[in-house]
Structure formats: C-alpha cells, structure tokens
Amino acid sequence: AMLRLRLLTWDVKDTLLRLRQPVGQSYAAEARAHGLQVQPEALGRSFREVYGAQSRRFPNYGHGQGLSSRQWWLDVVKQSFRLSGVQDEAALAKLAEKLYRDYCNSSNWEVLPGAAETLSRCRQLGFRMGVVSNFDSRLEAILSQCNLRHHFQFVLTSEAAGFAKPDGRIFEQALRLGGARPEQAAHIGDDYSRDYRAARAAGMHSFLLRAAGQGEGPEVPPEHVLPTLSHLLARIEK
To answer: What's the family (predicted)?
Structure first.
C-alpha cells in the first residue's frame, strides 16, 4: 500500500520540539532574576487565560490587525504578570523583552525523542520536507538553535502565510513551496483538528502523533496514528 509521497510537512510544537518546562516556571524564574517573587502556578494560570483571550481577540498574532507578533507576545507576557499581581511597569517591560528573546533559543526548547533520527532518515529516503506551524517569525531561529533547520526546504509559519491551521490555505502554500500535489504529500502533527483533519481536508495524507494513553480523542484509523515519531518510517518507506 506504499503511498507515493514526495513531500512531508511537519508541525513543530509537541511534534518535533517541546518546552523544557511549563511557561509558569520559566516566567517565575525570570521574575526572580529581576527580584520579583511570583508563584509559577499562578503565572501559568494567568498565562493560559491571557494567551487564550489574546488569541481570540487578535488571531494569528494580530496579522492584518496592525500588530507585529513581537508586540503581540510582549503584551501577553506583561498582561500575564499583571494578572499575577506584578504592577511595576518598568520591570514588566524588561521582563517581556527578555522572555521574548529567551523563547528564541534552545534553553527553553528540547527535541522530542526520535525526532532528529526520523527527520534524518526521511531525508535520506529522498522526501522533500517542510514545516507548517502556527508560530511566529522566531521559528527559523528556534529550529536552527535546536539543530533541526537543515532538514527542511522551507519553514512556513502562520505569521508568514497569513493563515493559521486548520485553514486549508496554509497547506496550499506549503504544497506550492514543496512542489507537490496534495495526494503526494503527508502532514505529521499532534493536533487532531489543526493537523490531522485539516491536512486531510486539503487533500493530503496525514499522520497523528498520539502517545499511548493520551486520553480518548476522536476515532482515527490505527494506520494513521503514530505512538512515537519512529513509527512513521514503517508507514511511508518507499
């Protein structure tokens, strides 16, 4: 049943890379370095609330609403600290700048088990590869810092595309960049609606990274589920 694939597109967060520690812990540690005591749990809750509200109000980093993704993130960080009781605006501005830069490098991100090996093997097998991620412009730098950038012919972020998954237009751009028709391409990601279902709606093949015991999601044919990234090769070997 070998799929005639030419192009593989990849989600990044929680597919290839994950945060080394929860956001609340990173933010609290940075606050301590600035002489501020904030509880990591409180910060984590504040961040989730603020990030959700900002995403609804200014989708895709405020694209088309006059915001830069940098400004979008600086607002999220400052608002998260304000909600956690920090009032010192000068300190907030410093913290936001520092955290915005820190999330650009490998001190905050780690490569998931099997990711580097799987990407190398896919490239050896001759697949074209690209990234399709709901992310901002820092993604190129993050992938380089984590030594994954060289695997990909293109990195397409929602900020650059102007559309965020599950919008099919981001996948259409990826197919153009990868020079493949939908049926020649497969997308790999960990989110059922934004990755698996959205890529299939765009006419592509898709595989859902879903660790065993990750809770019951919607039904997906077992041959489309990857318990780990290493399982991909058996599904796509030419």
So the answer is: Belongs to the HAD-like hydrolase superfamily.
